[in-house]
Design goal:
It is a single chain. It is built from 13 helices and 44 strands. By secondary structure, the protein is of the alpha+beta class. The longest helix has 19 residues. The two termini are 39 Å apart.
Length: 712
Amino acid sequence: MNKSDLMGMTAAVMMVTSACTSHEQTTVNSDIAIIGKQKVEIKDGRLTPEVLWAMGRIGSTNVSPDGKQIVYTVSYYSVKENKSHLTIYVMNADGSNNRLLTTTAYNEGEPQWIKNGSKIAFLSNKSGSSQIWQMNPDGSERELLSNYQGDIESFKFSPDENKVLFIAQVKYGDRTKDIYPDLDKASGMVINDLMYKHWDEWIQTVPHPFVAPVSGNKIGDALDILAGEPYESPLKPFGGIEQLAWNTDSRQIAYTCRKKTGVDYAISTDSDIYLYDLESKTTRNLCKEDANDKNLGYDINPKFSPDGKNIAWQSMERDGYESDRNRLCVMDLKSGKKSYVTESFQSGVDDYCWAPDGNTLYFTGVWHATSMIHSTNLQGEVKQLTEGQYDYVSVSILNQEKLLTKRHSLSEADELFTIDLKGQNKVTPITTENKDIFSQLQLGKVEERWIKTTDNKQMLAWVVYPANFDPNKKYPTLLFCQGGPQSPVSQFWSYRWNLQLMAANDYIIIAPNRRGLPGFGMEWLEDISTNYGGQCMDDYLSAIDDIAKEKYVDKDRLGCVGASFGGYSAYWLAGHHNKRFKAFIAHDGFFNMEQQYLETEELWFTNWDLGGPYWDKNNPAVKRSYSNSPHLFVDKWDTPILCIHGEKDFRILASQGMAAFNAAKLRGVPAQLLIFPDENHWVLKPQNGILWQRTFFGWLDKWLKPENQTKE
């Protein structure tokens, strides 16, 4: 989610570990260091946290109108500076002539081609706030286009380029000083309804879509198309410009919005797609035109067909169920007829695009623990186009014959690829952002393993082995517990929960696709709802018991780690593992489910997953859920546990991690607490990320490697 760059650089040498030397490309411009691509020297082939943070991270892409060039972003991080830098690159569509356009310490991002490919529009904070600029494709002649009084977060020019749509924050609700002008320095907030906090912020602004005219090289005054409405578009906390779209005639804008506030917002996922007409200034709700419409959950990410006659979006059927299957809905704008064109694909659509012919859509989705690119026609005939142990995470049109995609795996970071649709779907890499780093690494083997569960089903797990794995040795082994709780254990690449990094520390890792994960059908996915202590936990124990049968696994040195629902899993298993494990790590997990119900901000989640509030004592689902709260089993805790939490985590408050730590200490169980006052549900700052990894492996090594064990 962040970025970086370089230009006339002087090299600063930084020692990152005994195994890795990083030559960070930096220079000083007005006393601001430029963070750019790093030259990393790895002496022993071992992946380290410092090496991870030295990698460039590819972000957004945009294809030129003629399909011959691609502009894209890369973010770079500096552990020393404890910050990041977002940069822009451009290259030919075959990956040749790749060159960096960002030449200062200012963040530059969101690039898109305008003026028939003769210019690139982008965001920069050079003027003191985030504004829209333009430059030549070689990076020259940068010119400020917008002068909005605030930060522009993202933008999209209309097809005729006479207007621009952008996202900016507007004030939400009254401040204390609005109520009591004489208390303008008071920090207290008077709150009267729910959704007063979200993810990692106190809600004082919401994003709105604005439209402004474009004349020459200037963007005029903007119109807020939700003026006076207390709603957000796009949706917090992660929505961006992908939740808004121009029709091909430049006269209409489709936007995603959940027109609810307070309690209604907190308990509902029912967002809709709205069509705003710029001439009449009227709005049409595309999801609620028919009383029989089944668009009651999340409806997001609209995209018009090339001829503008149809519109597609991702649609969930059920209100309050944030992990419902994302179907691809296509609507004929004239007749209002809707069809769902991915029904034969029993998993969700994660990204999609229209083909130039308007009769085909390409999409990504997870099945059997990998994310592949598929196609569907308007009749719903789905075909898989890619294969292999990868996750394809985006898809867009490069030209009539090729797709552009971003891909990663458990053993490689994101790179860009093309897919030749007329050549047996041949996949070709076109970027090598981290090739120099990966060429020096010795990574562990990744193996697919099918495991028989306690109810006689087959469960797929990924096993990652140390790089120099010797089957005649015995290794400490980790059970990886996934969060979500309905996020796939696919071929993911993480800069924190990185399974190859764990393997580089001489651990075997088993990562099961337990009950509740997508890619194995709806019954498998939904087994976890109101059943947190049920089959999903048996699946975890089946996975660790299965791998522990191998002669190379030291069954006396097993660990259990996880975040979010994975953190809950670690807390729950700590009271139910029958001495299988010798160490636990729980990051941002909830410990007390009654506490969690009243503390979390998105109540639709706990209403669906836990069955409702804990005081609904006659509800059997509620009884089942809350009887499996980890705090009820602390009397059975007997194993060292590390609790990690961020104090800006409003999804699962830090009090949960503190309570778990306190309970362990009061029970006499060896425990450690790592608290980040400035991090949310994730860990985003470089030095905090390094601290996280050092603490993580320090704890595991202490309890799972005999040479490091001492009495606490």
